[in-house]
Design brief:
34% of the residues lie in helices and 16% in strands. Helix 9 links the parallel strand 7 and strand 8. The protein is built from 9 helices and 8 strands.
């Protein structure tokens, strides 16, 4: 099982993930643990109550009206397939202008069915975003040149769906979940006290922890099996040039914790999804300070 995982990863037994990965829902460890599940439950309850109430015929909703004519991206793809090379930049600019002209001719027809135009698109999709009522959606669909009319979907920050979306469960079934692999996170450290990384998830424990000293029995852990702080709390080249290294790579920023959770987190029910290689062990190498240094 472990051997096949290594083959799938190009025979490498370790992966280095740098700070180029963007911070997102995993975010700052102590902040998230302090919020606990209560705020997430409240948000879920609010969303559920909104979803439960269907809009009335006169409610104002946001919709996207997509036109039949292909967008610039679709035009480019079709041209490449038919001709063998992409259209020139000038051709794409001219086509985008053509779409804007088409949208301009459409606006007088839509004024009777929309209270406000919010935005328009030509490149990724060809259409306009409007504020209107559910009763007017069918009327908009009947206008000439319209391909579809759909409500604009509201999205919330959530990493629980990411790992299934990239197909990781299929890899787990075929090769294992990363057990035996070590992943080195070169970033702002890792909050090894975080519940999503095998810790107790107690915000008081995190607040009482001295980030520059390893307290007895706190580090390393079963999940975060080693690491080192090369930076210290204030290191910032060009501003504060002298690092203050120590043996404790506890994350004071949150970015490294997010990256670690994305790579190999255990997940927290109702709050965070598991990482891509949820069975892997982690090393925390802290090269950034506790704020926003470089």
């Amino acid at each position: 099982m472990k051997t096949r995982w290594r083959k799938a990863l190009g025979r490498s037994t370790s992966i280095l993930l740098g700070a180029v990965m963007g911070a997102a829902p995993f975010a700052q460890a102590n902040e998230i643990q302090t919020r606990d599940v209560s705020s997430i439950s409240l948000r879920t309850a609010v969303q559920a109550s909104v979803a439960k109430r269907a809009p009335s015929a006169n409610d104002q909703i946001e919709v996207f009206v997509q036109f039949e004519r292909p967008s610039v991206a679709e035009f480019r793809a079709q041209y490449l397939e038919n001709v063998g090379h992409p259209p020139s930049r000038q051709m794409q600019i001219a086509y985008a202008k053509h779409l804007r002209d088409q949208q301009a001719s459409f606006r007088p027809m839509v004024r009777a069915y929309a209270s406000k135009e919010l935005s328009s698109m030509q490149v990724g999709a060809n259409g306009i975003r409007l504020r209107t009522t559910p009763a007017n959606m069918q009327r908009l669909r009947g206008l000439p040149g319209v391909k579809s009319v759909a409500r604009v979907t509201t999205h919330y920050m959530d990493n629980a769906a990411s790992v299934p979306w990239v197909g990781a469960p299929a890899v787990w079934d075929a090769y294992g979940d990363g057990e035996g692999i070590t992943v080195a996170i070169i970033d702002s450290g890792i909050d090894y006290l975080h519940a999503g990384l095998g810790g107790a998830g107690d915000p008081d424990e995190y607040a009482a922890n001295d980030k520059n000293v390893v307290e007895p029995g706190t580090f390393p852990t079963v999940k975060v099996i080693g690491g080192y702080d090369f930076a210290g709390p204030t290191y910032n080249p060009g501003v504060e040039d002298d690092p203050i290294p120590d043996d404790d790579p506890l994350d004071g920023n949150g970015h490294g914790t997010h990256v670690a959770g994305t790579a190999a987190g255990l997940g927290v029910e109702g709050q965070f999804g598991v990482g891509v290689a949820k069975g892997a062990s982690l090393y925390a190498f802290k090269v950034f300070n506790d704020t926003s240094g470089s």
